[in-house]
# Entry
Amino acid sequence: MKLLKKIPIFFLLTALVGCSMLQTDNISQTKPQKHIAPQIQEATQEETASPKKTQIVFARTIDSTNATLQIVNDFNAKQEDIVVKYQELPSNPSQLYNYYLTLFQSNSDEIDVLDSNAIWSASFANSGFISPIDGFIERDKINLNAYNKGSIDALRYNNKIWGMPKYLAVNILFFRTDIVNSSPKTWDELLTASNLLAGKNGTLVGFDFSGRLADDMVYFAMELMNDYGGFIVSQNGHITINSKNATLGLAKLKEIYNSKVVSKNIYKYTEADAAASFFSGNSIFMRNWSSNWAVGKGQNSKVFNKFAIASSPAGDNSNSNTISVVASMINKNSKFQDESWEFIKYMTGFEGEKIGAVVEGKTPTLKSVLVDKDVLVVNPHFALDSFKKSVEDAVSLPVTDQYAKFSEIMQDEIYNVINGKTTPEETANNLETKLNFLLNNK
# Structure
């Protein structure tokens, strides 16, 4: 059971439209290729490196706003000894994951600081690709309690911390306020309301979500299993998915996927597809990442003043929302570990996270930024009790250094139960056997 001890039962969240890095896509089915750098665009910056300054390279996915440039330029303006060069990487999760993997495997130091989905951190750490930052945190007296707990826990592996959380997203329920007065409290209520009201006010379906064969499906399955009292991994690190409560969650997932109230091509729906349908006025309810709130309030939304958000519905036990975190990490091969940390400390501190929240609309992991008055002007939904509770109580997939294989096993088995190839009981038993084998036979 040695590996099971490495899987803390802490949970984090994931993201979507405008937050492509939070989409984990089908990385479990991709393979590393020769180290060929993607088309990297160097962003326009106000300051360039000088002989007196140490240049470090920061890489992240494409930012359609000016938030990243502002963070980089503000940091550079304050520094006498460091200058940051910002490089943009592909937004496609599979391409990004493979790029990082091949970069690390070639022992390249061309990138010093990288933004990554926190889900990948344990795998990167186990392979020796990224640096632990505990020493920096202790030296600079960083108060980790000032951050969202789930986002910090997501970056713990082997009793060390491997990155600083930068922003998060949580799966929540969007609902049409011109059709229903309040959000459904349970999944059964959601299905009933969807059946009764589909077609009202121009809607075509009752419920939309990202149902494709990817991590999206795994997150939803885990939410429902938790809602009915079942868990993939126990607090002491044992696989506990083969339980009556977990099978109830799997049965509810199958019911939802095969319901007449969802889009016919739900098996292919991405987060963007679900958002496009809901904000075009085609559906009554939508389960999606919280970052879509800004999309719904945009000029292209047909329901910008006709929707609200709430925590996901409950099962027989409780309700849970899944969370995903983007974190900033240090390349183990970087020659500038101290300088890289200084930039991460700024980027994930109050000033950096506030810029991300105000300019890019990201949900901050630093609690003080989440309640900042300037941030709330741009993101008033941060002040909603339902949103705050969703963030505080959010759960993530188990943290494991075998995440890619773990996800592939989960996807295959969940797909089988949804399509009737296996029963919920058979699926739970299969998952217990396969996950135990995986986590005990590295």
User: Anything to note?
Assistant: The CA atoms of residues 334 and 359 lie 29 Å apart.
